[in-house]
Amino acid sequence: MPSDEMELRRLEIAHVLKRFSWKGNFSAPVEEILKKGKATVLDAGCGAGCWVLDLGQDYPNSTFVGIDIQSKGFPSVNERSPNTGFLVHNLLSGIPFPDETFDYVHMESMWLAFTKQQYMNVIHELVRVTKYHGWIEIYEVNFDLKNLGSSMKSVQDAFHAKLKENGFDPMLFLEISKCLKSINELTNIEYKKVNVSLGGWAGRYGEYTLGAIKQFYEAATYMPDYMRISQSDYQKLIDEFDKQCTQNHTSLDIYRLIAKKVNLSETQ
């Protein structure tokens, strides 16, 4: 995806929509430790830093760090609270912090950034830097939408095929729970799901959410060539999303996976 102003705006809108869907920025039971202060929190793959900024403002006595592979979307010092910070780093090179550094580790929407094996490696890094009795939370989306119209299905099918050709798994979210359960240090694993309606039939929120998906596909400039159609015909398919979503009551599922890290020596 291009890292321009349009993409940053899309990330900001997506953040607001996620927060609305879940009625909050997180589901892990960390409210009390964040309020008490002195908690350290990591957002891995923070993008434009919206999640870090929100929590930094809501919990001024805790510290929040965002990591991303590029800094173009990072807020300036004047745009963020003093308890937040941002670091440029490639997560595939490991997380540049010692073991047991953070009380709470968060990662979201990274299914397009990593292959399956890379994603699993990053999960192990998240666990490594989480303190004992700390929490890990991962948010992902099932981009296999439900009740698709013909135009949306043709675009989605082509997008999934392109991902597979490039070594990515469009159903990667299914593997996250398996990975978490395979790690002995993790317990209290929860799998939360919210179904999100798309289009005008679901009101303004449904329109905004569908709008974010349309922008996502419009930014995928390689798709017309891949589908062997013109740019104008590709745009016509996207323009039909609104009508077809209302006709078919299209929706998608989003997920939060939560786990607590324990010290195995304490449980023996």
TrEMBL record:
Domain Methyltransferase, residue spans: 41-134
Gene3D superfamilies to which the protein is assigned, alphabetical: Vaccinia Virus protein VP39
GO MF annotations, alphabetized: methyltransferase activity
One annotated GO biological process: methylation
One Pfam assignment: Methyltransf_25
InterPro entries named in the record: Methyltransf_25, SAM-dependent_MTases_sf
Superkingdom, natural source: Eukaryota
Alphabetic keyword roster: Methyltransferase, Transferase
Name used for this protein in its record: S-adenosyl-L-methionine-dependent methyltransferase
